[in-house]
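Can you give me the bound-state structure? Components:
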Amino acid sequence: MLTRPMADAILGGVQRIRTQRREMVLILRERATPEQVAEMLQVFGTYIKLAVDVEREVVAGGGELHYDCEQALLDDGSRQTDIWGADWDPVGEVRFESLINIRPRQGNTDLELQSPELRERVERVVRRVFERVG
Amino acid sequence: MIDWRRLETRYAKLEWKQRLGNLASTLARAATAASNPRTAASVPDLLREGMWVIEWGRADTPLNVLIELAPMQKELGLLKRAWEQNNQAVRPLLAFRSRVMSDQVLKLLGLVQSPVQAPEVTRP
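Here's the bound-state model for the whole set.
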């Protein structure tokens, strides 16, 4: 039986989930490669839409919508409450604006992540995966 | 295949109420298309268009409206996914929910009083 660690070893920690016809969302558990970043940048050119699981410290990136990335993480076993939206700009900036962040029941009533603690957790995971790539 | 960038350029010229008006008609069209086998193939693109229209409105749609639209984007995505897996089973639900969401958008615009107009019933 193929276990998750075995699959990760085979796939190099990366899983591709097809969300629609045009693009692939990548699930990243460790530092991205320059090729993966280039692939995800094909969607918008200057930035990458992400969903971040702050508990499992896993990132999904490269979808047209944050929703696409969120669904990829849910398919991967994440809990809805642990997933937040962000963008990675290759100049080294993390942004925290996404429709999937509007979750009044979890205390976030804006596109922007309002909790400084949560922003810090999201940013830490994103930087671990994307910073100093290539 | 739909050119979403081109569509975004067109939608960008609209103010948020006009954009939401288009969203309501797109959702109503999805409801109608789902009910007719001859037009059912367009359902996934209509649902995706609805998701995009909500996305494109992030910058200028009032926050109280956006709070209503954010879960709607998610529901459209889930309906699209269910449709692509088994459109026969999900057809009535999709047609119903798309119509309800269309009415909900019209209500946000102040164009209808209630998302579903229930008929008056007199008890015997």
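A couple of observations. Chain B touches chain A at residues 1, 4, 48, 51-52, 54-55, 58, 63, 66-67, 69-70, 73-74, 77, 81 (CB under 8 Å). The mean pLDDT of chain B is 89.
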